[in-house]
Amino acid sequence: MTNNSLVGGAYMQHQINFQVILVQLLVSIFLCINLLLIVTFFSKDVFYVTMRYILFAVTLLSDSLILIMSDVVLILHYFHFTVPAGMCVIMSIVLLLYMFVTPITLTAMSLERFVAICMPLQHAELCSAHRALHCILIIHGLSAIRCIVILSIFFASASHRFYTQDIICSVEIFILRRWHDHVRAAISLFYFLIMCITIVYSYIKIMKVAKAASGENKKSIWKGLRTVILHAFQLLLCLIQLWCPFIESAVLQIDFMLFINVRYFNYITLFLAPRCLSPLIYGLRDEVFFHALKNYALCGLYKKQSSDLVCSSN
Predict the structure, then answer these.
(1) Which phi and psi (to 5°) does residue 168 adopt?
(2) Which of 7, 16, 231, 311 is the most buried (most CB within 10 A)?
(3) Model pTM?
């Protein structure tokens, strides 16, 4: 019986080691892709004076920050490193804040397409680079409201002794009572309901304009419609993430190893992958950004080959 337990424990430890290594590999790849997209954004003046590209850059920076912060928390948790509770609270606040910056920005990007197609005469005024900066502040403000509510409940419930402890960091530190989790889920679902209504409204309005359009204009409008559908899909992935804690809690009651595997699967497919693949798909779909990305990548490769030739000739 003891030998079986030891073998089972060794197998579990080996499996967890492999999972952590795979996460580090994926995070590194995703960060490199996001970094390439960010560098491409700063390579042309047209990108940082156009609202949709500015908002696209916001999602890239937000997702990259979440990738880094969540990976740091994962490593701390895996190696059982304890940190002061105050530091963990700060790290968790950043994660809570920026987890909602991306979906709210996606909603804003859908509205920008709505204005461009349904209100073309007002687009230059409403979607200027100056207005984009105001939009970014509003996005962070809306994301902060949810964060403030969660923090207010936490600070009202946590004892003074809690802040003097060293703990293993996790975002779950804010859930001191079971109803705290229900409040957080209710706020998140309310946010996503508003965002889904906004995207559906944009889709319906653009659809009406697309049916009435003709020629090249119709082709451009249908492309904008497909962009809104992509944003809706990205938002759906974010919405599915909300249900993960409930699924994981139910699985935990059945089997602990199954819980670890389900949580790992959710983290890879629903948390990490969308943070890279969705921006990459959006960047490849946009013709202007795709050409800039291709030229930047090929130029870098050409320069590397040229320098290698020079070195070999010397």
Answers:
(1) -85, 120
(2) 231
(3) 0.82
